[in-house]
Amino acid sequence: MHNRIVDKQIDNLVGALMDPIIVMPGGWGDSLPDWIKGAIQMERLVQLMTGEETGTDAEACAYLFTASLTNPMDSEWTRIYLYIAGKVVSRNKGTEIPEDIRVDSLNDDEMRSLRELKQWIWDRRAKVGQERRRAGKAQAKVEAEARTPKQLGLPV
After folding, report:
1. Domain hosting residue 71, numbered range
2. Is 44 in contact with 17 (CB distance < 8 Å)?
3. Which of 125, 132, 110, 105 has its CA nearest to residue 55?
4. Geometric angle at alpha carbon 94, from 14 and 112, rounded to 5°
5. Does residue 19 sit within a domain?
6. Cα–Cα–Cα angle for 92, 114, 19, nearest 5°?
7. d(CA 100, CA 103)
8. Do the beta carbons of residue 108 and residue 78 sit within 8 Å?
């Protein structure tokens, strides 16, 4: 039982650092600024301590950044994006979003949409990260088996 707990903690730590950043399909994922990638890793690590299982503010910001480059957003998602971007930029870059476009609060429907997006990001990240780790473990096993003395004709 103890090993499973330790394994889960290690998987969570590796996931926080290595899981993919979920972006809107369309080819804009490479345009994410480096500072937001670092913010995502830091927020994921902080989140490990809280045990909260949802996407982070920085992950939601990154997703909406790429979504805004892929398709025009309606007014609800524009407000959500400006709200979350304001929080993430302020926290990580020490600057503020210009007052004329800053959104300081969301209504209940917008907040629900943001929570649903963050939950979807968490679920998607967990699925993709788990698939990658499984594939990596399977590949490592195949490589280890390929190096065994038995296959080299040596006594085992």
Report:
1. 32-127
2. yes
3. 125
4. 65
5. no
6. 60
7. 9
8. no
Question: Does 101 reside within a domain?
Answer: yes
Max CA-CA distance within the chain? Answer: 75
Distance (Å, whole) CA 18 – CA 13: 9
12's tokens: 């969570």
- Residue 57 domain-assigned? yes
Total number of domains in the chain: 1
Residue 153 backbone zone (phi > 0: left; psi -120 to 50: alpha; other: beta): left
Q: Is residue 81 in a domain?
A: yes
Q: What is the DSSP string of 26-38?
A: SS-GGGS-HHHHH
Taking the chain (156 residues) in runs of 10, the rounded mean pLDDT of each run is 77 84 90 95 93 94 95 96 96 91 97 97 87 74 65 57
Looking at residue 75, its amino acid is S
CB 63 within 8 A of CB 23: yes
